[in-house]
Write a structure and sequence with these properties.
The structure holds three protein chains of three kinds.
Chain A: H1 4-31, H2 36-48, H3 51-76, H4 84-101, H5 106-135, H6 139-161, H7 183-188, H8 197-214, H9 216-226, H10 228-233, H11 238-264, H12 276-286, H13 291-314, H14 319-333, H15 336-341, H16 343-348, H17 351-358
Chain B: H1 2-21, E1 44-48, H2 59-74, E2 77-81, H3 88-100, E3 105-109, H4 114-123, E4 128-132, E5 149-154, H5 156-171, E6 173-180, H6 185-204, E7 208-218, H7 225-237, E8 242-246, H8 249-263, E9 269-274, E10 290-296, H9 298-311, E11 319-322, E12 329-330, H10 340-354
Parallel strand pairs in B: 1-2, 1-3, 3-4, 4-5, 5-11, 6-7, 6-8, 8-9, 9-10
Antiparallel strand pairs in B: 10-12
Helix pairs in contact in B: 2-9, 3-4, 5-6, 5-10, 7-8
Chain C: E1 3-14, E2 17-28, E3 32-37, H1 43-50, E4 58-63, E5 66-68, H2 73-78, E6 81-84, H3 96-101, H4 114-127, H5 143-156, E7 161-165, H6 173-188, E8 192-196, H7 200-206, E9 209-214, E10 217-223, H8 229-237, E11 255-264, E12 273-281, E13 284-289, H9 296-304, E14 311-316, E15 319-320, H10 326-332, E16 334-337, H11 341-345, H12 352-355, E17 367-368, E18 371-372, H13 374-387, H14 405-418, E19 423-427, H15 435-450, E20 454-458, H16 462-468, E21 471-476, E22 479-485, H17 491-498
Parallel strand pairs in C: 3-8, 3-9, 6-7, 7-8, 13-20, 13-21, 16-19, 19-20
Antiparallel strand pairs in C: 1-2, 1-4, 4-5, 9-10, 11-12, 11-14, 14-15, 17-18, 21-22
The chains are: A mainly alpha, B alpha/beta, C alpha/beta.
The complex binds adenosine-5'-triphosphate and magnesium ion.
Adenosine-5'-triphosphate sits between chains C (14, 17, 19, 37, 39-45, 391-393, 402-407) and A (367-368, 370).
Chain lengths: 371, 369, 507
Amino acid sequence: MKTRVRVKKDFTMSLFAVLLGMLAGALLMLVTGSNPIENFYYLFRGGLMNIERIGNTLATATPLIFAGLSVAFAFKTGLFNIGGAGQMLIGGLCATAIGLTFSWPKPILLTVIVLASLFGGALWGALPGVLKARFNVHEVVSTIMMNWIAYWSVFYIVPQYFKGPFLETESQRIPEAASLKIPWLTSLFSGSYINLGIFLAVVCVVIISIILERTTLGYELKAVGYNRDAASAAGINVNRNIVLSMAIAGALAGLGGATFYVGFASNMQIGVLPSQGFDGIAVALLGANSPWGALAAAIFFGLLHTGKGFMSAMTVTPPEISDTIIATIIYFAATSVLIERNWNRIKQYSPVALYKKVRPGGVDSTAGGEQ
Amino acid sequence: MRKWLALFMIVCFLFALVGCGDDAPPPAADDDENGDVVDEAELRVGMVTDAGTIDDKSFNQGTWEGVQMAARDFGLETRYLQPGGTTEADYITEIGNLVDAGFMFIVCPGFKFETAIYDVQDRYPDAKFVLIDGYPHAGDWDPVVKENVVSIFFTEHESGFLAGLATALQLGEGEVGFIGGMEIPPVQKFSWGFQQGVLYANENYDTNIVMQAENFIYEGTFENVAAGQQLAAAMFDKGVDAIFAAAGGVGIGAINEAKARAAAGEEVWIVGVDVDQYDEGIYETGKSIILTSAMKYIDVATYDMIQAELDGTFPGGEILTFNAGNYGIGIPRENPNLDPEVVELVDEAFKAMQDGTLVVSDEQGDLFR
Amino acid sequence: MNNIVEMRDIRKEFPGVVACDDITFQVKKGEIHALLGENGAGKSTLMNILFGLYQPDQGDIYLRGEKANIANPNIANDLGIGMVHQHFKLVHNFTVTENIILGLEPTRHFMINKKTASARIAELSKRYSLNVNPDSIISDVSVGMQQRVEILKMLYRDAEILIFDEPTAVLTPQEVRELMKIMRGLIDEGKTIILITHKLREIMAIASRCTVIRRGSVVGTVNVADTTEEKLAEMMVGRTVLFDVEKGEGKPGKEMLQIEKLTVEGTGGGHGLKDFSLTVRCGEILGLAGVDGNGQSELVEAIIGLRRANDGRVLIGGQNVTALSVRDRIQIGMAHIPEDRHKHGLILDYTVQENLILKNYFTEPFSRKGILDWNYIYGHAERVIRDFDIRAGEGAHATARSLSGGNQQKAIVGREIDGNPDLLVAVQPTRGLDVGAIEYIHKRLVEQRDQGKAVLLISLELDEILDLSDRIAVIFNGELVGIVNVDDADENMIGLMMAGGKKEVSA
Ligand SMILES: Nc1ncnc2c1ncn2[C@@H]1O[C@H](COP(=O)(O)OP(=O)(O)OP(=O)(O)O)[C@@H](O)[C@H]1O
Ligand SMILES: [Mg+2]
C-alpha cells in the first residue's frame, strides 16, 4: 500500500551507503598495506563459503536483527532507543534464569523463555517510556542509564544465583532443553550456531511491519512520532503511545537478548554490555528504519562479522585492523541518512541527471518540503 | 546512479559465487610470507586470544611470544585472531577460521576456551590444540581430552609462593596486598600461594609482614585499567607497601599508579604476574617498581608443545602440569630490585619444592580469599 | 530592457504533476508584481526556483538581462534576491540582530561584530520605517514584527528583488495595512517586489501588474489599473466567482456548545480566559472576533480538550465534557479546524489518505479489529479529494508535505467537514485559500449550519466573520466584550469592541 517509489529510493540509498562503506574500508586496507580485492574476497568467503558459515552468518545476524528492529521501531515512532544493550541483557537474564531454574520439556520451556525475555525487555523499555511521558525525561538519557542498571544487575544477580561451580564471572551453562539451538537445524547447517532465533526474528520482522503498515496501533504510534501536537489534537493519547512504543522496542531487544544468550551463546557472562545493542543503531540506519531493511542490514553486518576472522586468517591484515575495517564499513554504511540529506545534490551530478539536463522531458522524482 | 547499482550488484554476486564455489581450504603456499620453511610438514601455528589484546603484557602476550620464538627457530608461519566476543561460539568461530585457513596447530590461552576446545577437538580431528590453564569439558567439568589436544596447567600457587617469599624477605617489614582479575582458579591459586610465601617468611626468617583481608580483592575483570589504578591507589593510601597484581589489564592500572607514586618519591612496589613485568614498571629514573614477578613460563610451554609436534612427540590426550619440578614456574632470572641474599633464599625454596621437601597448598584453607 | 527578472520557459515536474509548465514570467525593475493563482497552481514552486531552492527541469533565468544559474539560496542572496517564506525561518530564542546576521557571520570576520550589525539594522529599520528593535528576542514579538524581521534580513543582505510568499495570510488587518505601507516605501527606495497573495483587494491596492497562473501555466499578465477584482478572479479560476456568501435566514435550535464561566491560564504572555461564557446553538454560525492573542487560542484549546479548565464548564450537546479527553469530545461530535495547519492539523509525513482518517481511523469501516482497511481508506480519500478539490500530484498517496499550502488547508477542512460533526470549531478556515476555494468552503460552512449543525467561527478577518456569522461575539483580554446580531453589526462597531470598548448589546 505504501508508495513504491519511497521504498525503492530507500533501497538505492542503502546500497549506495554500503558501497561507500566498502570504499572507505578498501581505502583503509590500502593505507594499512593490504590488498582490498584479496581482503574482500576472503571477507565474503568467510561468511558464505559453506553451509556452516552461512548458518553462522545468520546466527550472528539474529541478535542484530532484533536490536536493529528495536531501534527502527522506536525511531518510526519518534523515539531514540539507545537502551538496546540493557534490554538485551535483561531479556537474556530472564531467559537464562528460567532455563536454569525449571526442567520442563523443551517446547514448554522455550515458550516460557521467549515470553519471559519479551516481558523483561518490555519492562526495561517501558520504564524510560514512562519517565518520558510523565516527567519529560529524554529517552536517550534514561535508556543509557537503564543500560548500566541492567549491567550491574546482571553483575550481581548472576554470581549470586546462577553461577557455575567454579566460575564467578559467568552463569552455569544452560541445559540442552533451554537452548534455542535444535539438533536438526544445527546438523542441517553442519554444526553452525544457527538457532530458532532466526525464525523468531523473521516472524518479528513480519509482525512489526504489519503493525506499522496495517494496524491502527502502528498508525497511532507513527502519528505520534511524526507530529506529537497534531496527534494529540486528533485525540491520540500521546503518553500512552510513548510508553507502548518503548515497551515494544524493549520487548524486541529483550527477545534479541534471549537469542543471544540462550541461542548463540550458552551462558551469560557478567561485566559485558552486548555490543549488538549499539550496533542495532547502525542496522536501523542502514535499513532506513524499515523492518525488512533492518533484516537485510543485520544479515549484511552478520556477514561482515563472520567473515572478518577468516579474512584475518587468510591475509596478513592483523585482527585489530580487520576490526577497524569492519567498523569503518559499518559506520560509513550507517551514513545513509547523510546520503538522503544530500540525495538531491548527488542526483544532480549523477550521469542520469546530467543526461536529463541535455535531453529534457524525463520525470524527476525530487521530494522536499513546500516552501 | 543506476550504473553504480549494477556494478555493485555484480560485485556482490561475484563474491557470493566464488564464496560458494569450492569448500576446500586454499593451498597454504598462497600467502606464505616466510619463504624459507625449514620443516617439510610446513606447520602453520595459530593462536586465538582470550578477552584482551595480544599485547596485554601478560597471558596472551606470553603465549604469542612462545609461538613467535618457535616460529623464528623453526621457520613457521603464524597467525593470531581476536574473537568478536567472549562467548564459546565466538571462540569456536575463530578456531574454525584458523583451521579453514590451514593453521592446523592452534594455541588457546585461558580457561575460557575449555568448552570451545571440547567442541572443536571432535569437529576438527586433524587439527592439534594446546589449551593453557584449562582442560576440555562439556560444561560439567568432567575432563575429556582427545588425542589431538594437550591441556596445560601451571602451579600458580608455587609461583605465588616464591613471589610472596621474595617480597617478604626484601621488605623485611611492612604490609602487602593483592589485586586479582576475575576470581578464577589460576588467579586464586596465585593469591593463596603468595600468602603462604609471606607467612613462610614471617615464620622462618623473622620478617614482619602484615596482611589484611580487606587488601585481598578481585576487580572482576581483566580489562578495567582505571579500576586497577584506583584500587591500587586506595591500598597504597592505606599504607600497603607492595601489591601483588594478578589481573591482566587491571594490573597495568596498578603498575601505573605505583609508577606515578614512585616518581613522586614514594616507595611502593608491585609484584608482577605471568611474565617478567620488570620493563613494564620502569619509570622516569630508569628504575622499575616491579619488585619481582610470579611467572608462569607460558612461552616456554607453548614453545615446547610446538617443538614436540615437530619432533612427532606431541603429548596428545594428556593434561600436563608445569611446576617447579620441570621449571614451568618461578621468578625471573634477573631481579634488579631484589638483594642477592633474597634471591639465594628464594632459590633454596625453589629447590625444596623440586625435591618435595616444601609443599605449597593449592587450596584456600584458612587464607584470605 | 528594463526587466530585472525574466524566467523563460520554466518547467518543473513533481511525481504526478507538472507544477510549472513552461512558465515565462517577467518583472520590471521597481514594480510590485503580483502573482495570482489557484491553490497548487505553482506559484510557490516558481518562486522557490527563482530563490534557488529548486532546480528547474528546463528553462532559463535572466537577471538584469544576464543569464543566471541559481544553484542554491546563497547564490540567490549574492544576486540580490531575497525571500520571505510563508512560514518564517527564525530562531525563537535569538535576538533580532542574531537572527539577521545568522548565516553571514562566518564569511565575515571570526568575531561577530554585533554592535555594528545592530547599528546597521537600526538604521535600515528607520529608513524603511519598520520600527524593529534590534535587541528584542524573537519569541517576544508579534507575528507582524517577525515578518518585518524577515524583511530586514533581506534588506541587510542588500537584496533588490524581494519575494513575498503569502505575507498577509498570517497578519491581522492592521498589520496588513502597515505591511502595504512598508512595501510602498521599499519601492520608493528602488526595490522590486514579487508578491504572492490570494487577496485580490491587496493586489488592487498595491500591485502595478499581475501575472495569473492556472495549473502550472501562465494565463496572462495584466496591468492592475486596467482590471477589476472580478476579472482577476475569473482569469484565475476560469469562471465567475461569487464574492458574497448566499445565506438564507438561520433557524437556531437548541444549545450545542455551552461555555460557562470558563477560566483558563494563558501561555507565552497571551491572555487566558476569565469567567468566559458563550453559547453556540444548532443551526447557527457564531463568529468570534478579536485581535490576535486575546484568548482565542486558549478558548479553542479548552473547547477541544487540549487545555485544562481552572474553573467553569464546557458542555457539548448538553453533556459536560470539561473532564473528558480530546478523543471523547470528538466522538460526541466535535470537529476542529486548527489555526496552525502544520502544527495541529496535519501529519506532514503521512499521505493525504492517512491524514484524512486522522480523527476516525479507529472506527469502522476504516478499520476492523485494529486492522486498517486500506482499500476503504483509499476510496474515502478519493471521494474527499474530489469533493474538496484537493490537488496533489499523487492524489491520495501524495505526502501532505508535498501539497501546496492551500491544498493542505483544503485537506484539513475536508476531513473535518466530511465527518459531519455536530459542532465545528473553525479557526481561520480559509487561511491561504484562493478565492474559488474560499467560496466553496464558505458554502460548505453555511450548509453545515443549514443542516442544523453548530459552527464556532474564529477568524482575524472581519470580512469573513461579517459574511458568515449569524451572531458575532467579541473577545478582548480574555473576556467577552459582547455579542451582537450580524444584522445590527458593522465593521466600525465590531472594530471598536475589539479594542475593548464595551457595547452592551443583547442578542
Ligand atoms: N516537494 C514537492 N513534491 C511533490 N509535489 C510538490 C512539491 N512541492 C509542490 N508540489 C506540487 O506542485 C504543485 C504546485 O505547488 P505550489 O506549492 O507551487 O502551489 P502554490 O501555487 O504555491 O499553491 P498555494 O496557493 O496553495 O500555496 C502542487 O500540486 C503541489 O502538490
Ligand atoms: Mg504556496
